[in-house]
Amino acid sequence: MTDASIGKVVVNRVMSLDGFIAGPGHTMDWIFEYMTSATFPEVMAATGAMLIGRGTYEVGKRMSDENPDYDGGAQFVLTHRPPDEPDPDVTFLTCDIEEAVAMARRAADGRNLEILGADVAAQCLRRGLVDEILVYVLPVLLGDGVRFAPPGLDRIDLEPLSNIQSAGVSMLRFHVRRSTCAGSARV
Question: How far apart are CA 5 and CA 105, in angstroms?
Fold first, then answer.
């Protein structure tokens, strides 16, 4: 079990103003019209590992040429179907979400664990594993796509921590209030 006071579990989301984290067909190329790894370098510097869903991993592979400088540390992909050909830069996990978070937190070595992917983030939120939510709101309306939160996610109250603007992007940071989470398990 990892000490929760060292490094945080942070759901990290880029979102259009109308609440989509990906456009139709899971497109995310619109993000790089507004953001690069240099937009908020302090976030990357605080991140020691990433836990990603398989769908987000596949989208990220297609987009890797657009943002090659992003280094969030060790990458873990939670999936029911590991790829036939391993990726030497990624650890594929088929365990439950709590074990995956614990493993990725150990790899983060005292820094933050970044959670990417709608389904993985929802699983973490449902189990009470998330400390903060970091949202980058981009000045674009997509009209359709993948919503910030999937249907069926219960109410979760948040405490605003900060609001920073850089190059037209608003970064909102929230603390997840434990008393309102469905679960309170900690890793």
Answer: 11
